[in-house]
Fold:
Amino acid sequence: MGVQFPFFMKKPITISDIAIKLDISKSTVSRALKDHPDVNPETKRRVKALAEKLDYEPNLLASSLAKKQSNLIGVILPEFNRTFFSSALEGIQHVARANGFNVIICQSNEEFENEVLNTKMLASNKVAGILMSLTLQTEDFSHLRKLQDKNIPFVLFDRVADNVDCPKVTVDDFQGAYQVTSHLIKKGYKNIAHLSGPLGLSISKKRYEGFMKALDDHGFDQANAQVYECKLLNEDAYHSARKLLELNKDRPDAIFCVSDYVAFEAMRCIRDLGLRIPEDVALAGFTNDPATNYVTPPLTTMEQPAKLIGEKACELLLQHLKSEEHSEFPHLELPTNLIERGST
Amino acid sequence: MGVQFPFFMKKPITISDIAIKLDISKSTVSRALKDHPDVNPETKRRVKALAEKLDYEPNLLASSLAKKQSNLIGVILPEFNRTFFSSALEGIQHVARANGFNVIICQSNEEFENEVLNTKMLASNKVAGILMSLTLQTEDFSHLRKLQDKNIPFVLFDRVADNVDCPKVTVDDFQGAYQVTSHLIKKGYKNIAHLSGPLGLSISKKRYEGFMKALDDHGFDQANAQVYECKLLNEDAYHSARKLLELNKDRPDAIFCVSDYVAFEAMRCIRDLGLRIPEDVALAGFTNDPATNYVTPPLTTMEQPAKLIGEKACELLLQHLKSEEHSEFPHLELPTNLIERGST
DNA sequence: TTGTACGCGTTATCAC
DNA sequence: GTGATAACGCGTACAA
Structure:
């Protein structure tokens, strides 16, 4: 006999309620409400008027169940707390909403296990599709294959994996790094170092490659290039910077950092050593986090169109949802934009 | 006859599939899967084994429909892009997940209209409840009343409204402001100004009041206190700071800013005027944004336990969901924590 | 143009 | 301990 509503709880209005009051059938109400073509304009008007009056709200759960397609798009992010991701989220939400979809988000917290759990949860919630940026730990992709088996389409953005076959959206990291490095070279710096991220991570690797290529193209000797690898967003960045800066003879006069936050740590370190920016050491980052504007001196960096990345990723997913032709999976590489500030 | 699955789409496993293969009824399968007490341990084992083997995933849509209660909690935030909110979100998600709920988030973008649309969407998705932080524009609360009519419980956090009756979680803004101001006084500053937010906003008002009270309690003349109101997060902050700093005779030797971002703007302004921090003008903010650590000098500020606020808000909602006694609506005011840095 | 009837996958009630 | 069966609210072939 179903669940009883507690006495204090008004039973929500349903299409049947409207049907009964108007003495027509549920189907007609359903059709009227969703602007089905074959329905008398007059009935449509009456239905809509009553729906409005009764403050009817469709039950999307029931609708999704019947249509086997929900209006929810799942998003899995490593962290909400980083400007890049929250901006991307903004873009995702924007496009999703414009197309009648809602967004349900999860945080993997950079842990692989959470990522797997999240994909399961989203699958259980029968989301229409998933947008995700992988964990730093992710090396096993069986959870993604399961999604494919269940025919839940997904798009990877920013943190993508080469050996997963799906639509992808990233920034042109190679070009971006190439440009920052060229900028440093043009500014006249002679001994340019790179504080890189884990080279197993595709983003870090591409930035590293862009850096090396720029050196080479400008007649620098790649073999002499000082590259220190560090874990992202960690005290580790500080220590790597320290090692780099304590080289006496060979101290770099400029450092290209793999991310703004790594650059901030390097900045702290440079100050701690009593050096000046950019006179003694110039510094460039990557991402254009809002904080780059507030540090002293403001940080030169590559702007990543985070919001645009989110929008594009969401658009790819929606395209995929509409056409059943998944012939080729596109990989969008968006351009970055150099922002020169006082640190170089 | 319902929707046909496209040929390429595997039909998802359901409890009926399991029931048929095991030659038992759906009901038993359902019970076994959710550890209902009245079910033979052996059947339970067999059901679970098969479910595992077939990679069965429950359809939460159907479940929610049947139970008239979804496992989704809606969250409406003014912006994702601010550390405070994304941290709060983290807390919310944490508690939600620990209790078997998922989070569906929306962004009002500081626009009232979006806020209203969001509440409707979430209601349509039949969320179990809603957590929200109001827009700066929000003055009309009829959308919240509608939620109450539909018996969708909600909790307000951070940006709350006095004349809405519901559980609330905020920080003790009055005390926080009182403490920062007292800190400035103890440091020996004599002419302390306040760059406040819009006084219509309860947060700004309370911080303003805490500021004034601290002055009064330490024998300062409230009437002489320089308070400049500015819109939050705007160029407006810069201009207000400028006006304040261009007072020749009466230039403050310390400024308590309503937020860290306002303080960053003030900082820019102070530098533009060729003044030193904290020698000429000391500066304190509010929130403890990560960037406070990277500016020069690092900013003294009040730490707001953003994540904790999110957790508490979510806990209040879950409590409310469990007990139908909504006798009293609690208002939690969490303590803040002074973080002294180089700017004072 | 409208109505009938059934299915979506799960849960809950009631009888056995 | 288990099995029918009727909801939950909506969408949609098919008939009228």
The two ends of chain B are 73 Å apart (CA to CA). Confidence is low (pLDDT under 50) at residues 1-8 of chain B.
